[in-house]
Amino acid sequence: MTLRPLAPRCLAALLALAGMVICAPARSQGSVVVYCSALAEWCELMRREFERKSGQAVTMTVKSAGETLAQIRAEKDNPRADVWWAGGAEQYLQAAELGLTDAYTSASMAGLHPWARKLHEISKGHAVGIYAGTLGIVWNSEQLAKRRLPEPRCWADLAKPEYRNEVQMAHAATSGTSYAFLATLVQLMGEEPAFAYLKRLHASMNQYPRSGAAPMRNVAQGESTLAVTWMFAAVAEAQAGFPVKTIAPCEGTGFEIGAMALIKGGKSPQAARQWYDFVLSAEAQATGARAKSYQIPSNMAAPLPPNTPRLEEVKLIDYDFARYGQSAVRTALIKRWETEIAAQAK
After folding, report:
1. Please, what is the average pLDDT of the chain?
2. Could you give the CA distance from residue 155 to residue 143 in angstroms, rounded to a whole number?
3. Beta strands per DSSP E along the chain
4. In the chain, pLDDT over 90 holds for what percent of residues?
5. Mean pLDDT to the nearest integer, 126-145
6. In terms of C-beta density within 10 A (0-12 exposed, 13-18 middle, 19 or more buried), how is residue 220 classed?
7. Which residue from 2, 131, 263, 273 puts its CA 20 to 30 A from 79's CA?
């Protein structure tokens, strides 16, 4: 296995897991506070690029989408941030339903892919798509060979006895990735069959990390054999020399629309709109690949990252973002998963 320096990844992991502020200058007129639910490396690069271009200071905090939504809810009466950037559309739709975000239509809207504009329409202007990615199975080919396990082809494969304690997915209460997995299974199978499958899959799980990025990192480093995560996450690991492979499951799979929204009651609305407009530009969206975050950009003029699966290349379900972004639906699914799946003994 080819190794690479761990310091940047360790820093990113610590930042993401701890929800640390990665840049905290004194708040001044025209500054903007951003809650970021992307990889820490991308958050930091976007902070630097916006400050360079706008001359305005950015305070940025990195947390998973589920944790960020919980924080914004807790701060509703005294908002501490201006913008929420990155993380799954479902959480943003719930935030809009709860009255936590403001509507805004950027002048850049016409240059976005239809799926990004559709999210804006569904949310009544309270969210917009900034990237997309497909959900899949990833694995460490060296660890798979060492354990003499076959390569999985379908979701059903992961629940087979031979994969016991070999799989990871993030905790569904804190990770937008894993909530998308729950919603995908329910749409594929129906709720009762989906939870019957999840009970079988529980035996295959070795851990439910809080961070959505952790399962991919652990597979790359050989700490877990397989994971359920975004397929684009495997691209950076493979390019870095880690022996990872990925597949879109045979039954069909869901996809993510990463989103952005203005936080209602933010102290710097003008600077927040400047950040919003900047994020939708082709220039800003090209930073994803520079930070080794290989989602599909929503700006049609932005370059496509190399080797990232395109939506049209994958067997996708007709993912119902409007339904599975509803607060009641999301809360009920997560509560049921916590009670019936995560809380059960192995």
Report:
1. 91
2. 19
3. 21-23, 32-36, 58-62, 83-88, 101-102, 128-140, 167-168, 205-207, 226-230, 244-247, 255-263, 296-297
4. 84
5. 97
6. buried
7. 131
Q: How far is CA 89 from the centre of its chain?
A: 9
Among residues 136, 138, 135, the alpha carbon closest in space to that of 222 is found at 138
**How many whole angstroms separate alpha carbon 301 and alpha carbon 94?**
29
Confirm if 287 and 42 have CB atoms less than 8 A apart.
yes
Q: β-pairing, 58-62 with 255-263? A: unpaired
Distance CA 25, CA 10 (A): 23
Contact 315, 253 (CB under 8 A): yes
Q: Are 293 and 125 in contact (CB under 8 A)?
A: no
Please give the Cα distance from 214 to 220 (Å, whole number): 10
Q: Which residues pair with 112 in a beta bridge?
A: 299
What does the pLDDT average to over 52-67?
94
Cα(93)–Cα(256) distance, rounded to whole angstroms?
Answer: 13
Dmax (CA) for the chain in angstroms is 60
Give helix then strand counts, H and E, for the chain: 16, 12
Q: What is the pLDDT of residue 30?
A: 61
Q: Which CATH superfamily is domain 7-132+257-303 in?
A: Periplasmic binding protein-like II (3.40.190.10)
In this model, does residue 333 exceed pLDDT 90?
yes
Same fold? 7-132+257-303, 134-254+327-342:
yes
Superfamily name with CATH number, domain 134-254+327-342: Periplasmic binding protein-like II (3.40.190.10)
CB neighbours of 7 closer than 8 A, spacing ≥ 6?
none
Question: φ, ψ for residue 22 (rounded to 5)?
Answer: -95, -10
* Cβ contact 104:54 at 8 Å: no
Is the pTM higher than 0.90? The answer reads no
Strand-pairing partners, residue 129, are 259
Instruction: Kindly report, residue by residue over 289-325, the tens digit of the pLDDT.
Output: 999 999 999 999 999 988 888 899 999 999 999 999 9
| pLDDT tens-digit series, residues 148-168 | 999 999 999 999 999 999 999
